[in-house]
């Protein structure tokens, strides 16, 4: 299980706020098929929201602990029926190169620069 510091959890909570739940755990509970789906989702997304359709808070907390233990992920947040899980990507996604800001200088602007 991945241990997260308080500052890491706060930053991840902020990132997770705008996310929608990707995986929904129904009344059947945490089955191997659901674990496989969470695993596939964590391979493409490092931060994941999971909705649990169970009214028992202790059962949801146990599911969160079990998911994080099996998949080597970190528990970010458990609020209501939403679980937020984080696991760093194995290969980070390359960021697009930064574009130059603004337009190219005109001849008039270049003349005034000298």
Q: What can you tell me about this protein's structure?
A:
The chain has 114 residues and is of the alpha+beta class. It has one domain: Translation Initiation Factor IF3. Helices cover 40% and strands 18% of the residues. The chain has four helices and four strands; from the N terminus they run αβαβαββα. The protein has helices at 6-16, 32-44, 57-71, 107-113, and strands spanning 23-25, 47-52, 74-79, 82-86. It has a four-stranded mixed sheet, sandwiched between helices. The longest helix has 15 residues, at 57-71. The N and C termini lie far apart (61 Å). The model has no long low-confidence stretch (mean pLDDT 88).
Instruction: Give the low-pLDDT segments.
Output: none
Find the structural class using helix and strand composition: alpha+beta
Largest β sheet strand count, sense and barrel closure: 4 strands, mixed
Q: Quaternary status of these chains?
A: single chain
Assign an overall shape: elongated
Q: Please report the number of helical segments.
A: 4
The fraction of residues in strands falls at: 15-25%
Say what the CATH topology is.
Translation Initiation Factor IF3
Distance between the termini: 61 Å
Radius of gyration: 21 Å
User: How many β-strand runs?
Assistant: 4
Q: Just name the CATH architecture.
A: 2-Layer Sandwich
Query: What is the domain total for the residues?
Result: 1
Just give the CATH class.
Alpha Beta
**Average pLDDT, all residues:** 88
Secondary-structure element series? HEHEHEEH
Kindly report the name of the CATH homologous superfamily. Answer: YhbY-like
Portion of residues within helices: 40-55%
Order of strands, widest sheet: 1-2-4-3
